[in-house]
Each structure stands twice: as structure tokens, then as C-alpha cells.
Amino acid sequence: MPENVAMSERTRIVREAVRAVYDREAIYKILDEGFVCHVGFNADGQTFVIPTMYARVGDAIYFHGSAASRMLRGVSAGLNVCITVTLSDGLVLARSVFNHSMNYRSVVALGNAAIVDEPAEKLAALRAFSEKILPGRWNDARQPNEKELKATSILRLPLSEVSAKVRVGGVEDDAEDYALSVWAGIVPLRLVAGAPIRDERCDRSLATPEYAVNFRNLGS
């Protein structure tokens, strides 16, 4: 049986509840496919939403930012955040403008993010960021030095208050609109990688790594 996350009033899907997903494995699959999350938080009486790279490790999301950023002010007490990840899968073109839609998969996670101070956990999170995008890259490239580690802050958010919302399927028109002479259907969307472009100062004798040549987004 699939394991469901514990639903809270804050993560319960109210609008279009039929699209709600609380299955932990399904939620984690969405998170593992995405590259960028948006972190919402309050600072100095102002609400901010910041895009940043992230990685899921076990039952937590790790994300990072500059140690000097406003997001990390007062983080010693923890940072109350709302993290969202959205994957766009297709444009749903109905016969009426009102019924146009989008196929998508999205996750919302809430909670108190704690800063990661333990060096080994911090390094493991940075490795997870790298390996999430291009498995094998971490061992090929120079790894962070002490100065770089100090300049980067890593935060951990336990995935204890989280839910997903998914829209799949075709066009849903009003009954009377099916007779209209209007094209309807789906325009699929997917992230496609182009061919690697060598840096001008890269040694020409170095072969392009297989993980770059054969890169594919997890959802393709």
C-alpha cells in the first residue's frame, strides 16, 4: 500500500480536491524531477518569493542561498517557509476560452527550515544538488573549498507537511460547446536538453562527458 503523508489543514487541497495527491512516493517523484523551487518567506514585514536550486534527500528538502541574503536573516531560530515546485506537462486547449487549462504536477511544502551547520551534512547537500542534475559531475569537478562553504548557507526542510496537486487528461468542455467548429486538444510540454557547448577555454583534448552528451530530464 502506498504511504500517505499526514494531511494538515494547511496542506489539504480544497479547490479541485479530486486533483489532490498525498501519496509520499508520488510527491517525491515530482520533487525529484524538478530543478528549481520557489521559497516564500517574510522578512522585515515584506513577503518574498525566491527561486533557488534544491534537492530532496530522504524525507527532507535542502535548498541554499548566499549567507548574506535577506532570506537568511535571523535563520538561527529557523525560517518559516512555503516551498513550491511546479512541472508543466501540457496546454489544454478547449473550445471555449473559459475551459482552457494546463496539465501540471505541483508540490507545496510548509514548515520551519533549519540551517545546516554540520560540515558533513552541508557537503552532502551540495553533492545532492550536483548529482540531482547531472549524476557523475560531482566527482569530475573541483569540490567546494572552505571559503566557498562558509559563503553558502544550506537549509533543511523536513517533508512532514506537504501535498501535491496534479491535472492530467484531456479537454473538458461544456456540453453545448462540443458542437462548435473550434480546434481542441493538448499541446504537450517537456524540457529538452540541447547539445553541450564547450567553454572557449576548455582544453580541446578533453572529451565531453557522457552525462552531458546523453543528458535527459527525468520526465522525458
Please work out how many helical segments DSSP would assign: 5
Tell me, briefly, the overall form: globular
Mean pLDDT: 88
- The count of strands amounts to 9
Oligomer: single chain
Strand fraction equals 25-35%
- Helix content estimate: 10-25%
Short summary:
The protein has 5 helices and 9 strands; from the N terminus they run E-H-E-E-E-E-E-H-H-H-E-E-E-H. With 220 residues, the chain is an alpha+beta fold.
Describe what you observe in this structure.
This protein has a six-stranded antiparallel barrel. Helix content is 18%, strand content 35%. It contains five helices and nine strands. By secondary structure, the protein is an alpha+beta fold. It is globular and about 65 Å long. Strand 5 and strand 6 form a beta hairpin. The longest helix has 15 residues.
Descriptive labels:
220 residues; alpha+beta; 6-stranded antiparallel β-barrel; 18% helix; 35% strand
SSE inventory with pairings:
Elements: E1 20-21, H1 24-33, E2 36-43, E3 46-57, E4 60-66, E5 79-93, E6 101-115, H2 119-133, H3 137-140, H4 146-151, E7 152-158, E8 162-167, E9 185-188, H5 210-213
